[in-house]
Amino acid sequence: MMRALRNQKVRGILFQLLTVIGLVAFLWYIGSNTISNIEQRGIRTGFDFLTGTAGFGIDETPIVYNETSTHGRVFLVGLANTLIIGFVGILLSTIFGLFIGVLRLSNNWLIKKLAAAYIDIFRNIPVLLQILFWYNIFVKTFPSPRQSIEIFAGVFISNRGLYMPQPSLNATTISVIVSIFIAIIGIIFLNKWANKQKENTGKDFPVFLISIGTIITLPIIAYFMSGANFAFDYPVLKGFNFRGGKTISPEFLALTFALVIYTATFIAEAVRSGIEAVSKGQKEAAASIGLTEYQALKFVVLPQAIRIAIPPTINQYLNLIKNSSLAAAIGYPEIVTVFAGTSLNQVGQAIEIIAMTMLVYLTISLVVSAILNWFNHKMKIKER
Amino acid sequence: MENENIIEIKNLNKWYGDFHVLKDINLNVKKGEIIVVCGPSGSGKSTMIRCINYLEQFQEGSIVVDGIDVVDDVKKIKSLREDVAMVFQHFNLFPHLSIKDNLTLSPIWVKKQPKKDATATAMKYLERVGIADQADKYPNQLSGGQQQRVAIARSLCKNPNVMLFDEPTSALDPEMVSEVLDVMVELAQEGRTMICVTHEMGFAKKVADRVIFMDAGQIVEENTPNEFFENPESDRLKLFLDQILSH
Amino acid sequence: MAIYQEKQARVAPSGSKGIVHWLKDNLFSSPTNTVLTILGILFLYSIIPPFVQWAYTDATFTGDSRAQCTGDGACWTFVKMKMDMFMYGFYPEDQVWRLQTGIGLFIFVIASFKFLKSTKLKILILNLYFFIAFVLVNGGLFGLEHIPTDKWGGLMLTIVVAAVGIVCSFPIGIIIAFGRASNLPIIKSVCITYVEFIRGVPLITILFMSSIILPLFFPEGMTFDKLLRALIGITLFQAAYVAEIIRGGLQSISSGQYEAADAIGLSYWQKMLLVILPQALKVAIPNLVGAFISLLQDTTLVLIIGLFDLLAMVRITAADSNWLGMETEGYVFVTFVFWAFCYGMSRYSQKLEKQFDTNLN
Description:
The complex is a heterotrimer. Chain B is of the alpha/beta class. Chain B has helices at residues 45-52, 74-83, 99-109, 115-128, 144-156, 174-189, 201-207, 225-230, 235-245, and strands spanning 5-16, 19-30, 34-38, 60-65, 68-69, 84-87, 162-166, 193-197, 210-215, 218-223.
């Protein structure tokens, strides 16, 4: 028996057995305490609360919601708002981060240093502080609705938000949208045809210019052909606030602004490390076979740089989505604020609610990880 | 016609900041000549040949290659690089493209050839260097010697008049050096103009018309291979030969 | 056939060095660059002078009440008068000397590290310091008055949370990293599940869990201090990230090291603690510093669960009816403090990275 205990495999199994027993015992202890505590405090269990009336209002509701809606609906509203902030945040921070990253590599000393200073400043300030700071600025320094600034025709900014005209869903709007879709599909086919031409004859085709031309002129033609009237609903100052049009709340503005500025610093660094990782020799080889700087960038540098820059960038997307939960500090109604905040306060079933909220984020993380793995697999540089 | 200079370097001077890295280089290369350049590290030999295809810029002097002035002019540089090919010490193949695509990249996008023609040329030169069966593989799947041969094929694709080699075998394991040198010897025997920076003395003795010794940024001695190795005249060259021939 | 005389090095031509040349090369080398430089200067001009005017030229630094802040600029008098709250939260004024002693002792300990060689001694002294610091801050022993945690706040609370987070997450992270790297399937999967779960959810949900749900896990009588709940949440959160970083370090150790340690007869724990871990930590240090910078930034989240860290102090101090509307000054001040700490740590980490690079070579 003692000899068995010295056997490595046996020890391994014994150790794991002890761990499992320990874990189960611990979970049992927690579980039984939780059950008795819940009974004592009169907290209900189960997911029935999702059908109960919420009874509170929410300012920004991308889907239909009013005070008689259920907590289940609150969950969906919160989820929708989280996804909206995520989408807008990812889009804007990618564009901005790319921009800063490229500036960071410029050979203009002033531009390079400005970009570096931007990164060094905003990367080192806590994101919650940035959110509160910008929210404070928007709410304090922007004027009241009666004195709001008109940025251009029909677009106003005040400390209650950004107001803009909203097109109604009529013939003009629909035809313009449809024409954009047609233009995009046309461009895709044009690309395919141009590539085939290039393969067969070697000649270049001005795809880029024609694409730009198409995506501009086609919608314009559609606009004029369908009545030339979007029937905008303009925001109009009535009393103390605006009515009509589309409002973007200062909470949304502050949250998006702060998240984009913060996340863009990390994306810029990812872009920079991607491009710097492409060795000088690659650029020299490209130059010595006669490629122009633009061609070298397109065929040699960027394909390699992207492979390196994308994984950390996708990680940052995930961080942005997680950081959107900080909206709880300024009251933007995403899922943590309304569901794990207000609903939780009303219903008291912390375990179910927090578990559901965590599940949402875990699902988003898993999806993003899967996309990342797929991307890495596809782009892998083949080795021996 | 045959004895015309294809490369004329006059009073070439280059500084890195305050450091005078190339001092008054004067060199004329005839069409079809094979030149080997050797010297201790830091002597400026790589810098000099990289000036020839404008990978390095210089402050004083002039270089004329096949009638083209090497100056900061986009059009001139483009035609210069169609005429002058370079093989690098670290191969610098594009790892994300297949071997075939590495070779057809320039003909398709610079010379605007149809894909079929470019591929045919590529396969021809891959055969020439003995590596046609690897055409669909990727650079990191090949050995060092194979990669360097692909790099040579890549530079042959545009049929250059001048070929520059920057220590082509220095990064290879010993047993792969000969497969690359063999290809280079064949090219030399075809009548191409070649300038090679290398320490491979066997190669120099076999095909070089002239061997040039550089030290501390200037050309110290030049001679035919036999005279160069058997009767070195300057002290610096004697010292150098002692060091590299001692094993 | 030909040998040449030795040539002397000449001075570089004036067109290729000097300040005019630098300006030409770096700022005005092409039309695009010239335009960019001008745009850059315009941008700086539109931001820096207004800010300097608000923060310095028009600002008020003296006085002791709102009335003295007459100009258009910042009212730094507010920050000055509220400095105690920003620094110490609600800590009783007559006991603040204890906190200051703690800081002084810390500086003394760090300075003494320069003279100590043995790592063991350093760790011992550090542990002793933590005990003393805890007694100083919390009280209850040696005649020091017990200060309950709801009086802790401001920068002092931020530092407490960050320090406890760093110190406690470190050993837990190491153990989880070992577990993840082990061959025992159950241990490995438990550790992987833990890490992936924590990394997939935002810190705020972990803090909600630890502050609301944790008390439910334990019998009715056991009360959990609010700060303790937050510390547990932050520690468990950070431990997962530390574990991933150390795992990266472990992966960089070649298998030859493990084999050599086995060959000389070391047990598992001896091998890991004496041979593998020291090397893994060395590799991981720059990333560990990065994680600690993140932790420092994450401490601000405790304000959402009702603790009064440095960031929370901005709203609290600005709510004083004598000083309404001073949030902006508060935010600017707190921004500067956080930025200084985080930037300082990141420079230190860059220095460490350089040191480590040269050590490798």
